[in-house]
Write a structure and sequence with these properties.
By secondary structure, the protein is α+β, with helices and mostly antiparallel strands. It contains 2 helices and 13 strands; from the N terminus they run H-E-E-E-E-E-E-E-E-H-E-E-E-E-E.
Length: 269
């Protein structure tokens, strides 16, 4: 009988302790839930007021440049309500202003650029800061964002090949690239049939390391904070240790100054 009473008392004590622990745990969880609820309410209020609130963002842009074209991927991490750290990967091609596309003599082959020596592509890694100058004001407003970044640029020189027939068309068709002592590339005594395909020359890449600086203004007109729809206008400078031989004739450059307009899309979280 005593054993039964003792077991019953122990059972009641265990149930009481479990109930107490559950009550304590619930009381600990309550403040956290309240904090989360307040944070969500604050974010909703800020969104209604047109304030950009996020912890990270992912952006993709397609850009038209004064000397070519490009595309970029950008990752951002917000540090303060106005400052965000950004990391970018950009792929571009720079063209010489003297490039002019010509039609082949047969009228059916690829058009070509007379006296072009190399295609010049760039792969860029950048780091910078983004600053929000002006919030949207409301859901239909426009946020004005400033960007400044710098980084490294890896220039890729790909030989430019032409399909030609020497001796004014009396020899078999062959692909040639420019060399300093090969005037046939420039069309002297040569029938140029057009440019070789895009895949020609990738096995002969030459690498040119450089530096970059970029500044831009981004106008974000996305209706909701979590989506990014913007137009970006900016300037950038790419510097290399030597002149980049894009053209066989003409003044090749070591420093490239360009403006760009980009169409930007992305997400915030």
């Amino acid at each position: 009988m005593k054993k039964i009473v003792l077991i019953s008392c122990l059972s009641l004590f265990t149930l009481y302790s479990f109930a107490q622990d559950s009550t304590v745990k619930q009381s600990k969880k309550a403040p956290k839930k309240e904090v989360d609820r307040q944070r969500i309410n604050t974010m909703m209020k800020q969104e209604e007021e047109g304030v950009l609130v996020f912890s990270k963002q992912t952006v993709v842009g397609i850009e038209l440049r004064t000397n070519g074209y490009g595309a970029f991927l950008e990752l951002g991490r917000m540090k303060t309500p106005r400052w965000t750290n950004i990391y970018s990967l950009e792929l571009t091609e720079i063209k010489n202003p003297k490039e002019e596309k010509l039609s082949p003599i047969n009228g059916i082959s690829n058009s070509y650029v007379y006296a072009k020596q190399n295609n010049f592509y760039q792969a860029k890694l950048g780091y910078g800061r983004q600053y929000i100058f002006g919030q949207k004001g409301n859901k239909n407003g426009v946020a004005v964002i400033g960007i400044l970044e710098g980084g490294f640029s890896l220039g890729l020189l790909k030989p430019y090949y032409l399909e030609v027939s020497k001796n004014r068309g009396r020899s078999p068709v062959q692909s040639i690239k420019f060399t300093d002592d090969d005037t046939a590339f420039l069309g002297f005594n040569t029938a140029i049939l057009g440019a070789s395909g895009f895949t020609k020359g990738w096995g002969e890449l030459k690498f040119k390391p450089g530096l970059l600086v970029k500044t831009a203004l981004r106008f974000d007109f996305g209706r909701y904070n979590e989506s990014i729809q913007a137009i970006e206008i900016g300037l950038s400078v790419d510097a290399y240790s030597e002149k980049i031989p894009i053209m066989a004739l003409g003044d090749n450059k070591q420093f490239f100054y360009q403006g760009h307009v980009a169409f930007v899309f992305g997400k915030r979280k």
